[in-house]
Amino acid sequence: MSRLRLYARLARLSGVIALGACLASSLRIGALAGATPSAATRHRLCRWFLARLAGALPFELRLSGQCPDRPMLWLANHVSWTDIPLIGMLQPMAFLAKSDVRRWPLLGWLAAEAGTQFIRRGGGDSAVLNRQLGAALQERGTLLIFPEGTTTDGTTLRPFHSRLLSSAIETGTPIQPVAIRYWRNGEADAQAPFVGDDDLLTHLFRLLSTDIAQVDIQLLPPIDSRAMARNSLGRACHKAIAEALYGAVAEVPDAA
CA 20 to 30 Å from 71, out of 89, 92, 156, 167? Predict the structure, then answer.
């Protein structure tokens, strides 16, 4: 790939991030002045920004399935930080992310201003987390979580942390399973996964230096969470996503 093309991509992405910073600053100034925007307004603005961020990334999106017309708990497999703009541009929603994301340069601040809920890995306080997620769902909002708890290279699906589903059961919120997969030249993309010792800037430059890859996002049939035990619900979600990604697979127990 030519350096000129790389610089053009960097310029476009920098412009989008600067735009996001201006938007987040405006929200913060408004809040300090007493004009705090509603959660719904934040989510709509976040979707608008994420659509432009996704457009600045070297991906061609192929979407299948139907976007739900009511609030749901969206639940997806996790390959990269790019999953968030690619899924988040589809509908106004809030997000659950690792606390590490809060410390990312600029993007962590933007995520916090958008109303992202941060979870500390190994924090162990399921009751507090469940209250946070339940409050987000009771606001009639859509929430996206990644129940594997970490990213993978896209060739496997880790067990799901079913404790994250308790809030959906308690609030009667349906689950929207989402399967996301990255392709390059007909094979699983090795550049998109954000795993191991990757840091954000190194991964970003590597990604922008490559040719355009394909991303498949499948919105699978919703799953009714009412009257289900969380472990059973977790296994049902895992099975739906695993079959969408890899075909028939052996059942995997949930993580917790």
Answer: 156
